[in-house]
Design brief:
12 strands; 16% strand; 39% helix; seven-stranded mixed beta sheet; 380 residues; 14 helices; three-stranded antiparallel beta sheet; alpha/beta
């Protein structure tokens, strides 16, 4: 496939500079050079407005899990729009696709998690999960349990509650003060925080820090801990074996809920359908988004134990899950071993990457030298 539509790139860049804001971008660079404008996609490939082809290694924004240009998803959306384009779940209303999607999710989510509320994106899902955790304890007669434990370098969105949980300081700059009641512990980043320790020793160190935090804040004031099974935007931090079961046990001991942020991890990115399955734990509440519709339309939700649900995204989500086969997930699992064993010699000699972190469909490296120099060499 090649790009089929002719675009005026110069004109589009001018309009972009004049009118469009780009989150998480260097605005000075945008004003000077404009964006890379991607106009067409198929499978893992994208084409810009000048016809140049790229591999979409980022999968959109961690979300195009089944690839670009899937006709079955476009057909599902078109059919549903012509059938019923909008039905909310408010006021006791529902639509067949939303009901069918909830039932389908109940079959594939791990453990006891079988009730769902749909939203419009990951940040909204996390906001709702945090509110539900507090509301749960309010209903239980413990309204003082409001604090949230999160992790440094964790990312949970840029809405105000989710932003307070996010442990990346850059995202906080200029938006203070943060919502109160959030505290942060260390991530399972062995390269920086576990030097000289075995996996078991590193897990024990992290659990002790969590125990100390709970003791300092008071378990009777803490509603929940929120965390990604594998940290995504904070650096693809893959936990050591035993980390998540140990965290789950600690929170259970102190009567604290666990919220799994599956926004990036969910729907196959860790080799199994959900990060909880990959790392051997079940949360009390989980947020999801991105891969549920493979980015074809904004859609998200959360599920728990005991954009409102419009039918078109639900229909796409059902079709998207039907398009995932067991062999697809097996290929994702094998990708990790392939990635770890694949090496490329860089000449002239340069300092090598000192740590690689891999969970089947996401890879992160820590570098000993300027990343720009390495990327420039690899691009030759």
């Amino acid at each position: 496939m090649t790009a089929t539509q002719t675009w005026n790139t110069t004109e589009l860049v001018a309009k972009d500079k004049a009118h469009l804001l780009h989150p998480v971008s260097n605005l000075k660079d945008m004003r000077e050079h404009g964006p890379l404008i991607l106009a067409q996609g198929e499978g893992v490939y994208l084409w810009d407005t000048d016809g140049k082809q790229y591999i979409d290694a980022f999968a959109g924004l961690w979300n195009v899990n089944v690839g670009h240009g899937r006709k079955v998803l476009a057909d599902a959306a078109a059919e549903q729009i012509m059938t019923a384009d909008f039905v909310p779940n408010f006021f006791g209303l529902a639509s067949p696709p939303s009901i069918e999607l909830a039932a389908k999710l109940a079959e594939i989510f791990p453990g006891h998690l079988n009730h769902f509320q749909f939203t419009s994106g990951g940040a909204e899902s996390n906001e709702t999960s945090l509110k539900i955790a507090r509301y749960y304890w309010w209903l239980k007669g413990k309204p003082e349990k409001t604090k949230i434990i999160a992790r440094r370098q964790g990312y949970h969105g840029i809405a105000m509650g989710a932003l307070a949980a996010t442990g990346i300081p850059t995202y906080h700059e200029g938006f203070g003060p943060m919502v109160p009641g959030y505290v942060h512990v260390s991530p399972p980043y062995a390269y920086r925080l576990g030097e000289g320790l075995s996996d078991e020793e590193f897990v024990a160190k992290l659990v002790k820090e969590l125990e100390d935090m709970i003791a300092a804040e008071g378990a009777d004031t803490i509603a929940a801990m929120i965390a990604e099974p594998v940290q995504g935007a904070g650096g693809v931090t893959v936990p050591p074996d035993g980390y998540w079961p140990a965290v789950r046990k600690t929170l259970d001991k102190h009567g604290i809920l666990l919220i799994a942020d599956e926004v990036i991890n969910g729907f196959g990115r860790t080799g199994k359908m959900f990060g909880q399955e990959t790392f051997g734990f079940v949360a009390d509440i989980a947020s999801f988004a991105k891969g549920i519709t493979s980015g074809y339309i904004p859609w998200a939700g959360r599920r728990f134990r005991t954009r409102s649900s419009t039918p078109c995204p639900a229909r796409i989500a059902c079709s998207c899950m039907d398009s995932r086969t067991p062999d697809t997930r097996l290929r994702a699992t094998s990708r990790c071993a392939t990635s770890r064993s694949s090496k490329r010699k860089i000449s002239p000699p340069m300092p090598r990457s000192v740590a690689m972190r891999c969970a089947p469909s996401c890879i992160g490296c820590s570098m000993t030298t300027r990343m720009s120099a390495i990327f420039a060499e690899l691009a030759r």
